[in-house]
Each structure stands twice: as structure tokens, then as C-alpha cells.
Design a protein that fits this description.
Layout (H helix, E strand, L loop, with lengths): L16 H6 L4 H9 L6 E2 L7 E3 L11 H7 L13 H12 L1 E3 L4 E2 L10 E7 L2 E6 L4 E6 L1 E2 L15 E8 L8 H26 L2 E5 L4 H8 L5 E10 L8
Antiparallel strand pairs: 1-8, 2-7, 3-4, 5-6, 5-9, 6-7, 9-11, 10-11
Helix pairs in contact: 3-5, 4-5
Bound molecules: flavin mononucleotide.
Length: 243
């Protein structure tokens, strides 16, 4: 497996993997809690870093593109082990990083180059917003929001759930009736970049649209201009349970 090592965040390291998996909430419970407005993030037992300065993405190597396309797939079984910062860096750059600094160009297209889709990273240590220019993660909520990113139980304990959020404030030059579909298309392109990175790096991923939009929006503290489009889980595949 390329680029994956086992690192544990302090807060989770006291629990065994089995204990962490026991903390998953099943789908029916999530749906019931959502109906009464009680699907909430898990409080943290430790302090979150205000920001995570990511190492520079490694833009060379990896699997040849045609092999990555041949390997691309959705996977839904993840180890609880956290991702190394290098993997986090590489996959966030793949999702929406700057690839042409002189133009501020990104790795994924956007209509009229509006760059309206922001990527949030729900980690065990907090919810962070990816800032592509500085290639840094900024803390948005000091809570474990992973559980709220989807009705499926694996999202609770997989190490990373990405949330793609459209900022409608950046799409003023696009007709209002087209904004949601254009942003969704851009988010799909970003998510596919992550799929291909994961295929290349031996990571598991699945993009997801089945989540409680109200609960997640509230947990993230989004404003009226922001719309959640898509979520995506990433982690080390269970099958490769570390040799
Ligand atoms: C818009 C969209 C929404 C999806 N939502 C979910 C979801 O909520 N949960 C899930 O497990 N998979 C979800 N998927 C993944 C699909 O189930 C998956 O892509 C499909 O079964 C084909 O499998 P493959 O990706 O391995 O080719 C979604 C895919 C798309 C494109």
C-alpha cells in the first residue's frame, strides 16, 4: 500500500479499534434522531488544533492514470486508523487544490472558474475547512461531526468524511436557476479526483448523498448562502488490515 502509515490522534488512542467501532450509531437510530432534530456531533474529549498546516502535496508519481481508472471503485469498509497528514494533504489537493499558482487554477473545473465549492474535512479531532491557497485546514467546529455526515454507520468511525459545500455568494454571475446544478457538477469532479487519488494510493472511498442535510448544516454552522452538495468518506480499506 502506498503512503499509508498508522498514526493515532491522542484522543482516540486510548480506545481499541473494537471499542471505537462500538461507538457507531446505526442507520435507524440516526434517522429517528434526525426526525426529532437530535442528530448531533459527538463532543470531543480533547482540544482541537485551530489549524492544521499540511505538508506540501506530492505531485509526482502515483499510479498511471489508466490503471487508477481501472481500479476506481466505491468501498464501504474502513479501518479506524487515522490518515497520515501526507495522505490528507495529497487527497485535499486532488479534491480542490491549486495546480496553477500563477492563475490560481484548481485541480477540478468550475463554471466560469467561480471556485464555489469548498471542502470540509470531518476528522475525529474536529471539523476543518480546507483553504486551497495556503493549503491549510482551519478549525470550524471543535466537535466530531463524522456521525452526522451520513446515515450509514461506517461514516462515524472512518478517519475522514469530506463535505462539499457550495458558496452561492461566489456564483452571482451564474443565473440563479443554474447555480445548484453547476456546483453539484463541480463537486462531482472534485470527488472523482479523490476517487482516483484513493485508487492510486490504496485507500478506500465512497461519495455519498444520503445524509440529513438539516442536521449536518446545523452541525457545521453554515450560513444561508452555503449549501451542502455531497459527502465522501476516505480511509484505509479494512481488507488490507495492516500487515
Ligand atoms: C450522486 C451519488 C450519490 C451517492 N450516494 C451514496 C450514498 O449515500 N451512500 C453510498 O454508500 N454510496 C453512494 N454513492 C455511491 C454509489 O452507490 C456507487 O458509485 C455505485 O454503487 C457504483 O459503484 P462504484 O462507485 O464502485 O462503481 C453515490 C454515488 C453518487 C454518484
Amino acid at each position: 500500500m502506498v503512503g499509508v502509515t498508522k498514526i493515532k490522534y491522542s484522543g482516540n488512542s486510548r480506545r481499541t479499534m473494537a471499542q471505537q467501532e462500538d461507538r457507531r450509531m446505526n442507520t435507524l437510530t440516526k434517522m429517528a434522531l434526525g426526525l426529532i432534530g437530535q442528530l448531533k456531533p459527538t463532543p470531543l474529549e480533547f482540544d482541537s488544533s485551530k489549524s492544521i498546516r499540511l505538508p506540501a502535496p506530492i505531485m509526482v508519481g502515483g499510479m498511471p492514470l489508466m490503471q487508477a481508472l481501472a481500479a476506481r471503485q466505491s468501498q464501504r469498509e474502513f479501518q479506524v486508523a487515522v490518515l497520515p497528514h501526507q495522505s490528507l494533504s495529497d487527497l485535499l489537493w486532488a479534491a480542490g487544490g491549486v495546480n496553477r499558482a500563477e492563475l490560481g487554477g484548481r485541480t477540478a473545473p468550475s463554471a466560469m472558474n467561480a471556485q464555489e465549492v469548498e471542502v470540509y474535512a470531518a476528522l475525529a479531532t474536529g471539523l476543518y475547512r480546507y483553504e486551497p491557497t495556503a493549503h491549510v485546514l482551519h478549525l470550524v467546529a471543535a466537535a466530531d461531526v463524522r456521525r452526522v455526515t451520513g446515515y450509514q454507520d461506517f461514516v462515524d468511525t472512518a478517519p475522514l468524511d469530506l463535505v462539499y459545500v457550495a458558496d452561492h455568494g461566489r456564483m452571482k454571475m451564474i443565473p440563479a436557476s443554474h447555480r445548484e446544478s453547476y456546483a453539484s457538477i463541480a463537486a462531482g469532479a472534485m470527488a472523482q479526483n479523490v476517487y482516483l487519488y484513493c485508487a492510486s494510493a490504496g485507500l478506500a472511498t465512497v461519495m455519498r448523498a444520503w445524509f440529513d442535510r438539516a442536521a449536518l448544516g446545523q452541525s457545521m454552522g453554515l450560513d444561508a448562502d452555503q449549501q451542502i452538495l455531497l459527502t465522501q468518506t476516505v480511509g484505509i480499506p479494512k481488507a488490507s488490515a495492516c500487515a
